[in-house]
Amino acid sequence: MPYTAQRPVSGAGLGLRRELLAGLNGLDDDRPIDFMEVAPENWIGVGGRYGRQFRALTERFPFVCHGLSLSIGGPAPLDIELVRAVGAFLDEFDIKLYTEHLSFCSDERGHLYDLMPIPFTEEAAAAVAARIRQVQDILNRQIAIENVSYYAAPGQRINEAEFINQVMSQADCGLLLDVNNLFVNSINHSYDASAFMQRLDLQRTEYIHVAGHYAQAEDLRIDSHGSEVVQPVWDLLKEAFEALGPVPTLVERDFNFPPLQELLDEVAQVRRYQGVAGEGHMGSLTHA
Where residue 149 sits, what CATH number does that domain have? Predict the structure, then answer.
């Protein structure tokens, strides 16, 4: 059967970081943000002032989780205890969707503290899909995987889009579409970002990430999440909306935080593009 996206959140969201806690808790009720996202590893077991502030936000806003350390493509055995802890966290805060990076970050010796590329091969796709199915069985829910930025493609035998599609199809999981990662990779690996996106199984998209990056050279972009979203990334987001309608979209920022209002302005930009996309899809329905 075709995959049916869950999309348990809607609208325009913002990634929660501890530096933003006070400002976000101070927002009034006009809801400039529709949902938030957290890395569960950063919040599991957190108590005290941070824990109280986090719980207060989960009582006001819908949340999704985006993991950092599952290492779904890694050579080491799957961290079952982490998966179970994530499941308990999702249940505690009534979070409906868990996503992870399509990469690995650990081996038998421990964590590598970076997201490493999985070889683009059919064998690797099958192995990763099996691990995703194992996670889904433990959590008793489908998850989504994110297309990641990478700077080398060791052992590649199939193209990246085919690799992502094979993983999703064999695992029967969703897609967290990161249009910034897509743009960064298109520069670093010299391909057409729009054409690449069109090759993905976009109907599996649960939600979308937009973020900023660092232009180190004309042909080298670093996926930093430390600056504003640039226009080519906004343009890819609009293309995604044209294909899918106004799917949920979240602004990521990991450091170099501007005043909160500047991040809310980017969230508002997402919402404006969603509004235009929604009008276009309604028009298409009207003329059908």
Answer: 3.20.20.150
